[in-house]
Amino acid sequence: ITITIRMEAPDHETLQAVETFFLNREETVV
């Protein structure tokens, strides 16, 4: 899974999606 984040324009939705992705990943690993 590749996540591309535009550093020049970090939208709130993109940051939220990334946070959700990592949270889901942690829950899945645990």
From TrEMBL:
Highest taxon of the lineage: Eukaryota
Name of the protein in question: Uncharacterized protein
Species whose genome carries this gene: Rotaria magnacalcarata
